[in-house]
């Protein structure tokens, strides 16, 4: 049986990367495979959304560079909320440059991402050196990296041979690469000639493009339901943004909380169904 079909708790025990282990433990503790993507531009909205959805998530995803009134103290507030609600932090930086540059972007500048973000992600487009560069900064801090193996947008170029190469790059860097941003599982993908799938391989699949009420956003985004992502495609964590907070200009925080609860339940039920199906 593929390792990903085990419970989150069992899978946590077998992870060699501390961020992957901590994430799976938080998922199990909170009974939540929901990651909320907080794509808003004011610190106030950012913190109020996170405080509202905090009880229902195991992971908060940020785009810290879109905050217009960013100050380093925002990171302290974010860390306080992470401790208060028991979630990990994922800065969705999508690094895509040469090893030396990404190491600087990860460690330095005003945001100093590596100092506070447990997990970050990178496009595999530059080749294995991007992982090497990020690992020089992230590994000593016990961080984990996700590779973008696929994207949720219409016409995405990350498919076929590109996706296969991304998985091979991950297999060559098991200590740091904890999984993929993807729409499907990656077991059996990108095997080299004569190579057999390792049954113990257990990458985390984090899936954006999840929504219960919309099928797209008019700008290329494509949504599937939590059920489709977790049960049909084997995703481990659903990433939901606007499905939860709608239009930030016109936000009712009680409704944001209600939606987070709704998505948590949908994601968790799909996971329970996946476990049950395994026993049938
Ligand atoms: O393929 C992808 C990869 C990512 S990380 N498609 C995505 O949508 N994302 C991110 O997920 C995107 O940058 C955004 O922050 C979030 C989806 O937001 P939503 O509002 O469409 O749910």
TrEMBL record:
The keyword Cell inner membrane does not apply. Belongs to the OMP decarboxylase family. It catalyses: orotidine 5'-phosphate + H(+) = UMP + CO2. GO terms for biological process: 'de novo' pyrimidine nucleobase biosynthetic process; 'de novo' UMP biosynthetic process. The keyword Iron does not apply. GO terms for molecular function: orotate phosphoribosyltransferase activity; orotidine-5'-phosphate decarboxylase activity. Substrate binds at residues 39, 61, 152, 221, 241-242. Residues 33-256 form the Orotidine 5'-phosphate decarboxylase domain. Its EC number is 4.1.1.23. SUPFAM superfamilies: Ribulose-phoshate binding barrel (SSF51366). The active site is at 92 (for ompdecase activity), 94 (for ompdecase activity), 97 (for ompdecase activity). This is Orotidine 5'-phosphate decarboxylase. Pathway: Pyrimidine metabolism; UMP biosynthesis via de novo pathway; UMP from orotate: step 2/2. Keywords: Decarboxylase, Lyase, Pyrimidine biosynthesis.
């Amino acid at each position: 049986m593929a390792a990903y079909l085990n419970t989150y708790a069992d899978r946590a025990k077998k992870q060699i990367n501390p961020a992957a282990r901590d994430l799976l433990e938080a998922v199990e503790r909170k009974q939540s495979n929901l990651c909320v993507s907080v794509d808003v531009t004011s610190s106030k909205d950012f913190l109020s959304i996170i405080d509202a959805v905090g009880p229902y998530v195991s992971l908060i995803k940020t785009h810290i560079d879109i905050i217009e009134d960013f100050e380093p103290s925002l990171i302290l507030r974010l860390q306080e909320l992470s401790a208060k609600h028991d979630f990990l932090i994922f800065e969705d930086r999508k690094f895509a440059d040469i090893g030396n540059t990404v190491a600087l972007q990860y460690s330095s500048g005003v945001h100093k991402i590596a100092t506070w973000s447990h997990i970050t992600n990178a496009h595999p487009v530059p080749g294995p050196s991007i992982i090497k560069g990020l690992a020089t900064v992230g590994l000593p801090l016990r961080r984990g990296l996700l590779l973008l193996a696929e994207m949720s947008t219409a016409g995405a170029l990350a498919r076929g041979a590109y996706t296969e190469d991304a998985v091979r790059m991950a297999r060559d860097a098991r200590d740091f690469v904890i999984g993929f941003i993807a729409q499907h599982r990656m077991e059996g993908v990108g095997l080299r000639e004569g190579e057999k799938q390792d049954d113990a391989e257990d990458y985390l699949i984090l899936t954006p493009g999840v929504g219960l009420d919309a099928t797209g956003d008019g700008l290329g985004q494509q949504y599937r339901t939590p059920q489709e992502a977790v049960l049909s495609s084997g995703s481990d964590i659903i990433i939901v943004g606007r499905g939860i907070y709608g239009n930030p200009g016109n936000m009712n925080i009680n409704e944001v909380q209600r939606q987070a609860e709704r998505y948590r339940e949908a994601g968790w039920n799909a996971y329970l169904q996946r476990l049950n199906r395994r026993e049938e």
